[in-house]
Amino acid sequence: xxxxxxxxxxxxxxxxxxxxxxxxxxxxxxxxxxxxxxxxxxxxxxxxxxxxxxxxxxxxxxxxxxxxxxxxxxxxxxxxxxxxxxxxxxxxxxxxxxxxxxxxxxxxxxxxxxxxxxxxxxxxxxxxxxxxxxxxxxxxxxxxxxxxxx
Length: 150
Hints:
The chain contains 4 helices and 6 strands; from the N terminus they run αβββαβαββα. It is α+β, with helices and mostly antiparallel strands.
């Protein structure tokens, strides 16, 4: 299975189960302190050529350091850590779940689900975490491959 197909499989499984307006996957480059987008459901707003610096903030402490999923069900809960919150809102999204992909006690990437406000109930969050965990061995494998950008 290729990297795009595993990402697509997770995207479509989550969308079929609960609806997902925006889905992205980021691979982390700890050496260069960058996060590289490698899959997106919205290439115009969030192209796979996009990368961003890995900042130190409450999101990074929660997801990267504590290795826990980040859940925010209103824009106000993530606007301070997502500089692109206006773009997220313009796509009709106001809630987010970022699930870390962990390999040998290190976060190597995140799988990101976004939708309307209050979309991610505790039950839905648990389903998304389980979905990512089921695919973690393959995700870790493909996240180690060099990123081929269009």
